[in-house]
């Protein structure tokens, strides 16, 4: 192929490195006002009274709104949230009221003048306590909420989703087991910390058109949620996302948009802007849900896993309108990349009075694999087996089955990826130890898998327009969050049209002018949008071939696109430039067939079957699985507790690498992000209040933490993927943390069931075990 599989330069590269790319926060519209937000200081409290008098009288203030003004609930999967607290607050930092003023300074001053009288209520901050039958209810009205039917809230409890997986006969399998192992793990909340904070502008004009400019991952999903919440029809609501400076799931749903829209609707025709500062970003946008997990594993004498009984309790926070989907996704991937005949899994999304939990890179997979992959190493040690051999025995293989009973596709590259990593890291050769006796080195390994968690109607679409000079416009609504999708999708279009990538301009992110896209989530864009683009290019080709066949007087079906021409397969000298057909065909007698040439394509995955609500089984619950493995070498300083990742190697089966360098860049970013979750990152709260909502106290990896990285790519083509490709952006992070923790055990002999491995935690563990 000419363009697919090639390392072309990023199409947005120059704009980004020069600063020419304009983000929402760069925008300043005429007569723009700024929002200030009054937030709750309590994790759980009744609102007895809100007095906005002083704020309304403050010079420069133009409008004030509270939850009573717009009380309708919103949510993508479960309509359980309001954008302002109504009657009571459910987490510290929840918006209670907002003002619009002439400057940001005035808006903040006025928001502080709003007086709120509360009655503090008992609050819940541990999901294991909140799930108990006698726990106070955070959402007593749960049974009245609208919900997408595939989710199962439990009214009268704090359980907003209960996904059950029942495969085989677990009870019999445990009776036959040679050994049974039980382990528990905990993964804390962490923050997405995108470079670009959340920001949005809303304007409501005199014709009742609502326009929202937002740094968001999924303009159409945001439009749907806002349309429902504020009762604005789709044709009157436009969402524009000009550029996104990082998302990782934090910008997948709606957050601050719902705060400024009421102000815009109250004022009319004046744009309102709200930009989160870093503390707002921590407290008031999504966090990754915390997870309590339990595993009970039955194994035969050869190391074959006979059965797994596990439980996942997700701390969904105050609202789980997005979090319910994470609990479901974890449930149907209950045992990770291993073929287990008997499974009993319960996965719960649970309300607490903690910050709102939402999607984060990996969508629950990194969290459950932290336990799954440590459990594999633990079983291997207890059985006196090689942990690599244990994984080989149990790995999902072509023709095997997934947790839901679906057949494993022939393109499963798990074993291939594992072997590549074992070889690269030289896993079975012990690490060379440093001269310093207080330091010790060791290697660790982990596997992982992920599928796109999306409904069977999750569609993508694309429009391709040929210009008069033979260049092309590609229009999609997939958002480039930094992952390079603009480049990869342009390469797919270039291959389909046989036009150089530099002659294609891609336009994204405007619900009035770019075609429908379900969401930019789930590592689905290369697969779903890529397939839509191929169909749009095929539509263009049909139109061009129809015109060229008349001009060249050859059969339409014998024409192909090649090097910016429509060419006769049987005689390449008979061809016509694409540019000559862009506006149609003109004949000498004055008659003609007119263009312009505009191709359209849409794609919805075929054959996806919803889960059985009682068993969680499905013959095809997802479109594909992406498999891979990690290997790391770490150094532990036993005096300071500091862990340094020296080397990291990864291999993932991506089907077909549309742009190999971008795939490697994704894996490198995933190594770093996974390293952060393993060693540094943890939201610390006291009674629901953040204790580290800034980069002075919340640590993320820096350049000094970068390991030596080696990235491998396996390519077993996806049968229905665009040129064989499948998504890999999220899967690339999943095995990172468990590989590091497994290496830590190999270095110290200490198992750690809680993340992160901070210096304090490491030193305490070493002291406790007299190491």
TrEMBL record:
<dbReference type="Pfam" id="PF02738">
    <property type="entry name" value="MoCoBD_1"/>
</dbReference>
<dbReference type="InterPro" id="IPR016208">
    <property type="entry name" value="Ald_Oxase/xanthine_DH-like"/>
</dbReference>
<dbReference type="Pfam" id="PF20256">
    <property type="entry name" value="MoCoBD_2"/>
</dbReference>
<dbReference type="GO" id="GO:0016491">
    <property type="term" value="F:oxidoreductase activity"/>
</dbReference>
<keyword id="KW-0560">Oxidoreductase</keyword>
<protein>
    <submittedName>
        <fullName>Xanthine dehydrogenase family protein molybdopterin-binding subunit</fullName>
    </submittedName>
</protein>
<dbReference type="InterPro" id="IPR046867">
    <property type="entry name" value="AldOxase/xan_DH_MoCoBD2"/>
</dbReference>
<keyword id="KW-0500">Molybdenum</keyword>
<dbReference type="InterPro" id="IPR037165">
    <property type="entry name" value="AldOxase/xan_DH_Mopterin-bd_sf"/>
</dbReference>
<dbReference type="InterPro" id="IPR008274">
    <property type="entry name" value="AldOxase/xan_DH_MoCoBD1"/>
</dbReference>
<dbReference type="InterPro" id="IPR000674">
    <property type="entry name" value="Ald_Oxase/Xan_DH_a/b"/>
</dbReference>
<dbReference type="InterPro" id="IPR036856">
    <property type="entry name" value="Ald_Oxase/Xan_DH_a/b_sf"/>
</dbReference>
<feature type="domain" description="Aldehyde oxidase/xanthine dehydrogenase a/b hammerhead">
    <location>
        <begin position="18"/>
        <end position="122"/>
    </location>
</feature>
<dbReference type="GO" id="GO:0005506">
    <property type="term" value="F:iron ion binding"/>
</dbReference>
<dbReference type="Pfam" id="PF01315">
    <property type="entry name" value="Ald_Xan_dh_C"/>
</dbReference>
